[in-house]
């Protein structure tokens, strides 16, 4: 009886371990915060409405091992139906810096939607990377796309 109970307990523990480790690990190249959180918790769908809105932990979804938060269930559903449409370009790194082959942190409130893609940018008191991006967006996009492909293979 003791052996049977021990065997069952072991199977339960192994089952738990295997399902909890079955999560897709995120790419090491993505700009993620604590607990694999993207865009510092901002809702990626909200950007397409013209505004950066902080997401809520109760409306979350995982895509490619990355956790995204949303401001509503409706936004969460839109994302899960078409994650590639809403996920930020270049793994969430600054688009201008990516054009130079660099991974630089972003200000999640500094963004631009162009041709249906979400671009995020670094911003400080003294500098706004989006200003540089807008001066030659087509060329910068091409350079950043090439850099991201080399860095992440995407």
TrEMBL record:
Name this protein carries in UniProt: YHS domain-containing protein
Organism superkingdom: Bacteria
Protein's organism: Humisphaera borealis
Signal peptide: 1-22
Keyword annotations from UniProtKB, A to Z: Signal
